Amino acid sequence: MTETSATPALAGRDLSRVFRTPSGDVHAVSEVSLEVQPGELLVVRGPSGSGKTTLLNLLGGLDRPTSGTVWLGTEELTAMDEPELLDVRRRRLSYVFQSFGLIPVLSAAENVEVPLRLLRTDPDERERRVAEALDVVGLSGHANQRPYELSGGQQQRVGIARALVSEPEILLADEPTGQLDSATAATIMDLLQTLVHDRGLAAVVSTHDPLLMGRADRVLELHDGRAQRRGRHSAA
């Protein structure tokens, strides 16, 4: 992990998200604060319904907090309008989904290429970066296969390659091992840990799996939308 800098790569300040429902208000996230430095892997742990996905959506600009702020370095994400948020999500921040989120009719390489097409990247540069991203996740030999021809672990590696290809500063992963067996889940978390440290990414990964805590630099535990414990991980 890199040394702590004065300004974190990603920070949430007193984040709260309240959903209004006919049966009453649902406090999905309540006054949560966190900071993530470049090269740091923060794991958000908690049971289903604890607010992990909502928190990641707030940090990634996919949802707006009821109160509180999100910062990317010195820029306030929560003050940006929709076009600015779209540009941030394309250039500076990437997401890895539990359900893989791959386009079934596209090959692995074509799925990875999607963010670069949205950025109108030069075709030669696209080809180079897609090949590099697939190589990093160990899938160079599977570039032309469709998602249905790949295992769950391989599909998630494609999802990680797609998240990396735009060379983001921030990586958010929502239960990236939730659909994988324990052995495959461990390899995916090992890969994420290596990529975060080697590339200097600031990463927030949510999970409810206690076996994956050992890959974290720090752990933030959520219960009923509130942060219960935060600190450096230590093995039991």
Summarize the SSE layout with pairings.
Layout lengths: L9 E12 L2 E13 L3 E6 L6 H8 L7 E6 L2 E2 L5 H10 L1 E4 L11 H11 L4 H14 L15 H13 L5 E5 L7 H18 L2 E6 L10 E6 L2 E7 L4
Parallel strand pairs: 3-8, 3-9, 6-7, 7-8
Antiparallel strand pairs: 1-2, 1-4, 4-5, 9-10
Q: Summarize the biggest pleated sheet.
A: 6 strands, mixed
The average pLDDT score comes to 89
Question: Strand arrangement, largest sheet?
Answer: 6-7-8-3-9-10
Specify the number of helices: 6
Number of strand elements: 10
Q: What best-fitting shape do the alpha-carbon axes yield?
A: globular
List keywords for this structure.
236 residues; six-stranded mixed β-sheet; alpha/beta; 28% strand; Rossmann fold; four-stranded antiparallel β-sheet
